[in-house]
Design a protein that fits this description.
elongated
Length: 353
Amino acid sequence: MELWGRMLRAFLSGMGRRGGYWGRAFSSWQPRLPPTGLSSAREQVSHWTAVFEKKGIPEARESSEYIVAHVLGAKTVNQESQPLTFSVGQFQSMRPVLWTQPLTAWQLQCIQRLSSRRLQRMPVQYILGEWDFHGLSLKMAPPVFIPRPETEELVGWVLEEVTQRPRARGAHGGSLILEVGCGSGAISLSLLSQLPESRVIAVDKGEAALCLTWENAQRLQLQGRIQIIPFDVTLEGSWRHLLPWGPMDLVVSNPPYVFHQDMEKLAPEILSYEDPVALDGGEEGTDIITPILALAPQLLKDSGSIFLEVDPRHPELVDSWLQSRPDLSLHLVAVRRDFCGRPRFLHIQRSRP
């Protein structure tokens, strides 16, 4: 506990010394005073929607709604609003009376300040400092990777498989799960919240990610069933550090899988604020995927499973790679499509000897 406290303090103080993502992003922008005469939530949403649209900010209305609602202590402004494309959580609605009642000077200043960050293309999740994922409210902070709605589908698939296979038991009666690249802890903590007897080993090579996962685990009171370990899957022999935790029932990961040549095509929100190491998968997007697959047989139980989120071009590449490595005793069991119809998730299983 003391170790994680020291790591978190060091991380936060380091951001302060460097000016952080906040300081760098806003140093050249001087905010205007809150518009006079715009005193209600509805008027503020309309005003900032127009400003965002003029400046070419994506999801202009949704961004303004989330910011205004956040300042007023809610998650969205009206029941008819659709959630932002990068979140599929259920959002509470503001009471209609709050749409038109006068806002205080402090509330107007907060809306102004947060909106100025959106004008600098900061993702809404970082602006609000939290986001819903699979029914959990998680703290968000740059540069840790922001979980996407597709990954909620991956979690759902893992939960289906685990509940259908009650024989997969760890030493404490539930599944022992390894997550490679835990980021904010979204996958690990979602699984723990739905599988009360399970345990998770969450690994990442980024200190900021490790600290944020631990913070979110404490926030959700799940810290007793998760071990958070610094770990680089690409280092030769690194798997030996995980052997003391025992054979795993599952390995799950949303690894960096963007093809390197596609990185420059990503939105400014991603390129300016999120850690590129959590996105860039190398020339074919498999620089982390193949080490995970090579690592898994050393850690998985017989018939243990690997669940991966990948690029739609990867299922064929991964299947071909596995066939070239019969020594791993791994085979592709299933490919599942995301809500846009793209082949996005892989279920790979270790064969019995």
